[in-house]
Amino acid sequence: MPPARGLFISLEGIDGSGKSTQARRLAEALRALGRDTVLTREPGGASGAEEIRRLLVEGDPDRWSPETEILLFTAARRDHLERTIRPALEAGRDVITDRFADSTRVYQGATRGDLRALVDQIHSAAIGMEPDLTLILDMDPETALARGLARDSGEDRFEDFGLPFQQKLRAGFQALAREYADRCHLIDANAGPDQVASNIADIVRRNLP
Ligand code: TMP
Question: What's the predicted TM-score (pTM) here?
Fold first, then answer.
């Protein structure tokens, strides 16, 4: 008999909201429960997708139109899905991804442009799958932006759109949490990282099969 499919979890939020740290801590918590867990990220998570990532996160903010971004993020996501996410889930492993399609809905669909219908069409044609559970880290955009830029990662193309952009993103993620209320949980990320990690672990434990 094939193994039961693993759990597919995404973490979402504005730039600098602490997603990557929390994704790592959640992976550690699941492994401590004896679950075989893959930690991955978008854009990226497979070698071709990581190449596309560089095109998207580096360089001038005006380098791509929002429409072109939708196509590039979706191309990266398709590669990630084919090579990393689906094989892991089918082998019974849990997958935690730092961002997935909700980022395209909010960044390109609701913030860069008013393009949600196009995002949905392309998503259903090329991806057609949602996480079982999505944790949205909600925090003050000013603090998050300062944190994101302080990292000086060379991947600041979206941070460089500035504070009003991050404020719009936050509202977009809050609206998304209401739209997909059965899958999405809004987490207060202004609390300290230990508190946030413990809140996330509680929600995930309640959703384990
Ligand atoms: P990261 O900094 O969380 O690794 O994500 C890279 C940047 O790409 C971040 O600023 C958010 C942005 N992004 C989108 O605009 N649309 C998407 O679909 C994804 C996955 C990320």
Answer: 0.97
